[in-house]
Amino acid sequence: MNNRLKSDFFIRDVLDVAPELLGKSLVRQFDDGTVCRYRITEVEAYRGTEDLACHASKGRTPRTEVMFEEGGKVYVYLIYGMYWLLNLVTGEEGNASAVLIRGIEGFSGPGRLGRELKLDKSFYGENLATSARLWVEDADLVDEFKTSKRIGIGYAGEWADKLWRFYL
């Protein structure tokens, strides 16, 4: 049974998608054929060009172009020259919102997660509905989760105070 989430799950408001990703399985098929499933435990929502913490707030650039596509695509970017961070694009085309996957069971922090999943630039723009190496599978909706301010975005003014980090 394939319970991979279809594109329509992601073509919704980021504030609906983000908490609903908690408890779902992030699935990675590695180059050697090994398939690993990881329960998503922590996410952050980044909501379009108005959200000063969102990369899209700087407008369309080669880095952010995939964020402006229809939800269900992968947005990866490199930080500190060593960590690829995984974001799942949400919303309608032109919306430019995404969910940063901050934690999976056994791995806390987006950099550690990227290392565990062996992410690199080649994942940029990957379609979660059709990818043979990265996708999300459905699981029961999580009833209870916590919220807090997003991490590391003090520069974003009032946007830093939004309770858009969701975690188990």
Q: Which key features would you list for this structure?
A:
single chain, 168 residues, mainly beta, 3-methyladenine DNA Glycosylase, Chain A, nine-stranded antiparallel β-sheet, 3 helices, 11% helix
Structural overview:
By secondary structure, this protein is mainly beta. The protein has helices at 7-10, 14-21, 110-116, and strands spanning 25-29, 35-47, 74-79, 83-90, 97-104, 107-108, 134-137, 146-148, 165-167. The chain has one domain (7-167): Roll (3-methyladenine DNA Glycosylase, Chain A). The protein is built from three helices and nine strands; from the N terminus they run ααββββββαβββ. The protein is globular. The mean pLDDT is 95.
Note the topology.
Elements: H1 7-10, H2 14-21, E1 25-29, E2 35-47, E3 74-79, E4 83-90, E5 97-104, E6 107-108, H3 110-116, E7 134-137, E8 146-148, E9 165-167
Antiparallel strand pairs: 1-2, 1-7, 2-5, 2-9, 3-4, 4-5, 5-6, 8-9
Question: Outline of this structure?
Answer:
With 168 residues, the protein is mainly β.
Please report which band the strand proportion falls in: under 5%, 5-15%, 15-25%, 25-35%, 35-45% or over 45%.
25-35%
Please name the CATH topology.
3-methyladenine DNA Glycosylase, Chain A
Count of individual helical segments: 3
Described by strand count, sense and barrel closure, the largest sheet is: 9 strands, antiparallel
Global structural class: mainly beta
